[in-house]
Design a protein that fits this description.
Layout lengths: L1 E3 L5 E6 L2 E6 L10 H18 L6 E6 L4 E3 L4 H4 L4 H20 L4 E5 L2 E3 L1 H8 L2 E5 L3 E3 L13 H9 L1 H10 L2 E3 H6 L5 E3 L2 H15 L4 H13 L5 H14 L4 H12 L9
Parallel strand pairs: 3-4, 4-6, 5-7, 6-8, 7-9, 8-11
Antiparallel strand pairs: 1-2, 2-3, 9-10
Helix pairs in contact: 1-3, 3-4, 4-5, 5-6, 9-10
């Protein structure tokens, strides 16, 4: 077990190769302020640039306590921002979401309670979302005279479709867990937070028997092709499909299949 305690507003603990990332402002419903975002940026950059998937094979993201995953951005900090300060804050939030997408390992958002505004945006930046039956999603910024600033106008439409995303953002309404599952925002529901964490760890246990290199490249291709035409996306897929034939994992995986044994993947 490896524990990192050098943060004020987040915790990160690695157990059996899975990083448990918790937004740790329970009294503030884990709201995102500049400190949270800066600490997330530092941690995620470390995982990308230094760890590179060698120690951490997956990341589970959740919020401290039972009431909220992330209730949103910290409005108390935002209310007195001028235009330039708001731009810097929004840019930092967007950078963090992009770092989640750039992590070389799979990332599961485990949403308990509220995932509103910036919380919904952070969850959507993960590879997929598990949620408790009491989870509540939404982009309520218009109720405050704001618009989503950490990617909500862009990612929500890609997840649930443009028109449905417009309806959710324009009304600022809450999306409860069952609807989130139905529209594809969440992919699985659980009765409790503990069951959700256990479910995510079980999913990671399946993933970690597969090639880390193949998962990393699949993630890059899927995210990279998100805004491309099908034809260009297929070109991106073909390039990487061919490239993996030079990898050690491909050689080991195909050899193990022919030899009818479990592969021993190294991630290379």
């Amino acid at each position: 077990m490896f524990i990192t305690n050098n943060y004020e507003t987040i915790t990160f603990e690695v157990k059996e190769g899975i990083g448990h990332l918790t937004i740790n402002r329970e009294k503030k419903l884990n709201a995102l302020n500049s400190t949270v975002l800066s600490e997330l940026k530092t941690l995620l950059n470390h995982l990308i640039e230094e760890d590179k998937g060698q120690t951490v094979k997956g990341v589970l993201v959740t919020g401290a306590g039972e009431k909220a995953f992330i209730a949103g951005a910290d409005i108390a900090q935002m209310q007195d921002m001028n235009v330039e300060e708001a731009r810097e804050f929004g840019a930092l939030g967007q950078e963090v979401t992009l770092l989640f997408e750039r992590l070389p390992m799979p990332v599961i958002a485990c949403v308990n309670g509220f995932a509103l505004g910036g919380g919904c945006e952070m969850a959507m930046a993960c590879d997929f979302i598990y949620a408790t039956e009491t989870a509540v999603f939404g982009q309520p910024e218009v109720k405050l005279g704001l618009i989503p600033g950490f990617g909500g106008t862009q990612r929500l439409s890609k997840v649930v479709g443009r028109n449905r995303a417009k309806e959710i953002i324009y009304t600022g309404r809450n999306v409860k867990a069952e609807e989130a599952l139905r529209i594809g925002l969440a992919v699985k529901l659980f009765a409790s937070k503990d069951e959700m964490i256990a479910g995510a760890l079980k999913t990671f246990s399946f993933m970690t028997t597969n090639s880390p290199n193949a998962i990393k490249i699949s993630k890059q291709v899927m995210n990279g092709g998100n805004d491309l035409t099908v034809e260009k996306g297929l070109g991106l897929e073909l390039d990487q499909f061919a490239a993996v034939f030079s990898s050690e994992d491909m050689k080991e995986g195909t050899k193990a299949f022919v030899e009818k044994r479990a592969p021993n993947f190294t991630g290379n």
